[in-house]
Amino acid sequence: MSATKVFVARLAGCSVFDPAGDRVGRVRDVLVVYRRADPPRVVGLIVEVPGKRRIFVSVGRITSIGAGQVITTGLVNMRRFEQRGGEVRVIAEMLGRKVLIKKERIRATVEDVAIEDRGQGDWEVSQLFLRKPKTTPSPFGKGPTTFSTWNEVTEDELPGEAQSAEHVIAAYSDLVAADLASTLLDLPEERRFEVAEELPDDRLADVLEEMPDQERIEILTRLEDARAADVLDQMQPDDAADVLAQFSDERSEALLQLMEPEEAQDVRMLLEYEPDTAGGLMTTEPVIVSADATVAEGLALIRRHELAPALGASVCVTLPPYEPPTGRFLGLVHFQRMLRYPPNERLGTLIDQQTEPVRVDASAAEVTRVMATYNLVSVPVVDDAHRLVGVVTIDDVLDHVLPDDWRSRDETSTASRARLRQRKAAVTTERRTTRGTNG
């Protein structure tokens, strides 16, 4: 059944279906246009479809809204959404704004926006859910809430005052880091920075890892040095190294000095390698165990929630010490192999004898060839003394092989396709050279 009034923050993330019941995508925002005398009119929804692409679905194509779902006519234009002048995104641009309640002369914050069907598929903003300033000195207290119609308030944004981004963050709290990164990239530059500034350090670190270099550098540049260093601490060392390599030597060193010593040490090591080598691609935080460790201990280590799936696909067995650079690298044990043996089995007896590590100075093409040949999601990296210094994961390789603008384009541009062909050609050449040498 279609609802006649819907709160936009609750609509975010709802599934969109066609008349046959097939899922089209998920609602990410509501688009409105302001009118001179009447409340803003809803012109459509911004929907994320498979492939992380955001499209515009006109309100005229929507037949039903309700019970956590949206039904469309099935006729959807798959062209990427581009915001036009005069259009306003409710979640991204209205939530968190300050308004003045005319009757009470009190400034309040917009926490949610209700849209209502006025008939014939004509939706407009009907109510604002507002929070007034708190009346108690308690740091944990919140101000009272109230409902107001559009005509009972006026926007009261003060010059130079940053809009609150808390409500945007709350509306997108269910998004994984990659989706939230795409959402931030669609926001106006100033709004993007406001939301990024409000994110917790670990959440912002995850998001920055999914952004193109230019955008994440812009965000980190605008943060205070102490905050930027805290965020870099939370990033994977290889991603942090990629970012710091783009800064000047002075700025990079200043941030390294503010980072945690252990994290900074890993990043400094990565900065010593060329970016298109195994050393430049690897992460320094693989799962490392001794040969005497048991299957139960290995499974416990890869079960950790914070561990990336590619890093949890195998454990590295080395001699002490067990921090990169470790003692001599002995080999890999894949998690599927651990599942086939009793909990008390020693991991030293389960090492994969076929998977060889790559040298730290191996080219990215060679690393790609090894991973493709042996169907690996990660490959260990060793130095001249055969000590483990890190692992290259499949996402590191994909970031290198894919065109630079893969995050923000639906189809590869001509220039990107040319770069992709060049990289593939390099991999093919490396493969032929290697086989010829071994032949």
Written description of the protein model:
This protein has 439 residues and is α+β, with helices and mostly antiparallel strands. It contains 17 helices and 19 strands. Strands 2, 3, 4, 5, 6, 7 and 8 form a seven-stranded mixed β-sheet that branches. Strands 1, 9, 10, 11, 12 and 13 form a six-stranded antiparallel β-sheet that branches. A three-stranded mixed β-sheet has the order 14-15-16. A hairpin with a 2-residue loop joins strand 6 (62-66) and strand 7. Helix 6 crosses helix 8 (225-234), helix 8 (225-234) packs across helix 10 and helix 9 packs across helix 11. The protein is elongated, with a radius of gyration of 26 Å.
List descriptors.
439 residues; alpha+beta; seven-stranded mixed sheet; six-stranded antiparallel sheet; 17 helices; 35% helix; disordered C terminus
Set down the secondary structure blueprint.
Blueprint: E1 5-7, H1 8-11, E2 15-17, E3 23-33, E4 41-49, E5 53-58, E6 62-66, E7 69-72, E8 87-89, H2 90-94, E9 98-101, E10 106-117, E11 123-131, E12 145-148, E13 153-155, H3 166-171, H4 177-186, H5 189-198, H6 201-209, H7 213-222, H8 225-234, H9 237-244, H10 249-258, H11 261-271, H12 278-281, E14 288-289, H13 295-302, E15 314-318, E16 329-334, H14 335-339, E17 358-359, H15 364-373, E18 378-382, E19 388-393, H16 394-401, H17 414-438
Parallel strand pairs: 2-7, 14-15, 17-18
Antiparallel strand pairs: 1-10, 2-3, 3-4, 3-8, 4-5, 6-7, 9-10, 9-13, 10-11, 11-12, 15-16, 18-19
